[in-house]
Specification:
By secondary structure, the protein is of the alpha/beta class. The protein is 43% helix and 18% strand. The protein contains six helices and six strands; from the N terminus they run E-H-E-H-E-E-H-E-E-H-H-H. The strands form two sheets. A four-stranded mixed beta sheet has the order 1-2-6-3, sandwiched between helices. The protein has a two-stranded antiparallel sheet with strand order 4-5. Helix 1 (13-26) packs parallel to helix 5 (132-147), helix 4 crosses helix 5 and helix 5 (132-147) packs across helix 6 (158-169).
């Protein structure tokens, strides 16, 4: 679901919702729900300071609902130590599949929330030579990956590689 809580930038929400559903299907989480909220720069700046202790607006923030989801992908090759730790923590609850998310709990689940600031996204789109529509799609994909447990700040490039592969698949490059 996409909620537009800002009015500074006119956006067509339905195509973005269709893209979000496509991402969910591609990642194997179509029975999960994700809320993407489009907010003003001032609002995302408040969230950025409160939750990340960073001043100023950012283009996107992700708020995972829990840790029940893990992504098993061709790119993901956990270290033996991490693999043992995950096995202990989630003994027998995950099955391996190529490039899909696998869930350990109920049929339907809530992945979390993604906040996107279209004002900041528009500045980044211009800087990166993309349209705002394409930039918003890139951010939706990026946010969903974070909700699934990817973290580009700590995973030695794993999220970036997988995201680039998906961007090519979705023709976002």
């Amino acid at each position: 679901m996409i909620l537009n809580r800002q009015q500074r930038i006119r956006l067509a929400v339905r195509p973005l919702e269709a893209f979000l559903r496509r991402v969910e299907r591609e990642l194997g989480v179509k029975n999960a729900s994700v809320t993407v909220c489009l907010v003003r720069d001032v609002e995302i700046a408040r969230m950025n300071e409160k939750y990340r202790k960073k001043k100023g607006p950012t283009d996107i923030l992700s708020f995972p609902a829990g840790k029940q989801w893990r992504v098993a992908s061709a790119e993901r090759r956990p270290t033996e130590k991490r693999n043992r730790e995950e096995s202990k923590a989630h003994a027998g609850t995950y099955r391996r599949k190529k490039n899909v998310a696998v869930r350990s709990t109920e049929q339907d689940s809530y992945l979390g929330d993604v906040a996107i600031a279209p004002e900041t996204a528009r500045r980044y789109a211009k800087k990166n030579g993309r349209s705002l529509d394409r930039e918003l799609r890139v951010l939706i994909l990026h946010g969903v990956l974070h909700l699934l447990g990817y973290d580009h700040e700590t995973d030695r490039g794993e999220m970036d590689r997988f995201e680039q592969k998906l961007r090519r698949r979705f023709r976002l490059v």
